[in-house]
Q: What sequence folds into this?
């Protein structure tokens, strides 16, 4: 037993829409091809939530319910709900409020956290602080994004990248030494619009002009983002290892944000890890922003062993980036 209270993941849930948007389908929409997309990104297909009456909160609630079912608890036991997202159903209320109602978590309060592709990591470390302080017993952490709602499907530089999905985990206290051990987060304010949604906020509120100019779609300077993401994810992953005296042999799995296979491979090389130790599902889902890391945890949950050392790493718009070191507790 450890003297320190840690927050550990005790259940993992997910949701991905049924509709598949393949590279071959995109060939019919924009000037691109399957080989080009796979070579540069590693993506073969992505999931799209086609139902116009369903949004991010629907996917988040589905993932959350699977967590509850897996853990065998009632929603009334949840204390806090934290949703990492950049595609909330509304500017307000928070998506967490809608999830709370959908799953019937009558005793929980909640809030959204916006850190783009780093959103789940920021939310997970925030949730861990609630558990470690002893103020909360059960914290639901969700990463969910309906990226198709802000993607311009005439822009071949962005529409090939993103998909829709949600992943969720339950955090609870433990004293067995497993759980979230350490985290490192960074921000460097991007005022150049390298990766952002120009309109919809208080600077450029919705107007006829913003709609006509396509300012409500995600915009990206691909070269700049690729360079900074490659450096950021690799650097912070090595940083968390060095802070905790971890060597490559000590790490069971790298759980990287699924933005680009080349970025993932560069991060693994920097950490000295073979590809057998890296979770990769970008080929199936594309970049689901805040959902990528929990979706990896869900897809690999049967391969994880109690006590495994995991390094979670992400880079996103903002710029935001970070890493979490945890010992798997299930």
A:
């Amino acid at each position: 037993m450890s003297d320190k209270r840690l927050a550990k993941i005790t259940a993992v849930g997910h949701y991905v829409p049924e509709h598949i948007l393949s590279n071959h389908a995109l060939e019919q929409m924009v000037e691109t091809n399957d080989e080009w997309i796979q070579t540069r990104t590693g993506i073969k297909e992505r999931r799209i939530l086609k139902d116009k009456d369903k949004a991010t909160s629907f996917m988040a609630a589905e993932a959350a319910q699977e967590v509850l079912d897996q853990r065998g608890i009632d929603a009334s036991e949840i204390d806090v709900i934290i949703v990492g997202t950049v595609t909330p159903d509304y500017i307000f209320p928070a998506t967490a409020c809608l999830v709370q109602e959908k799953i019937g978590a009558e005793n929980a309060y909640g809030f959204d956290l916006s850190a783009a592709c780093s959103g789940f990591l920021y939310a997970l470390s925030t949730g861990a602080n609630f558990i470690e302080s002893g103020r909360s017993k059960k914290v639901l952490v969700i990463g969910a994004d309906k990226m198709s709602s802000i993607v311009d499907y005439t822009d071949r530089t962005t529409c090939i990248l993103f998909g829709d999905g949600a992943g969720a985990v339950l955090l609870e206290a433990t004293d067995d030494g497993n759980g979230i051990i350490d985290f490192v987060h960074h921000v460097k304010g991007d005022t150049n619009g390298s990766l952002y949604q120009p309109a919809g906020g208080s600077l450029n509120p919705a107007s006829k002009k913003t709609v006509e100019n396509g300012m409500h779609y995600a915009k990206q300077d691909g070269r700049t983002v690729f360079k900074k993401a490659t450096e950021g994810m690799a650097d912070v992953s090595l940083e968390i290892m060095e802070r905790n005296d971890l060597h490559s042999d000590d790490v069971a799995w790298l759980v990287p944000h699924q933005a680009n296979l080349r970025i993932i491979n560069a991060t693994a090389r920097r950490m000295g890890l073979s590809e057998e130790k890296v979770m990769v599902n970008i080929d199936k889902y594309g970049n689901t922003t805040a959902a990528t890391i929990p979706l990896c945890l869900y897809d690999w949950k049967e391969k994880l062993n109690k006590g495994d050392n995991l390094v979670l790493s992400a880079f996103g718009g903002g710029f935001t980036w970070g890493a979490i070191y945890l010992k798997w507790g299930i």
Q: What stands out?
A: The chain has ten helices and 13 strands. The chain has two domains: 6-176, 181-327.
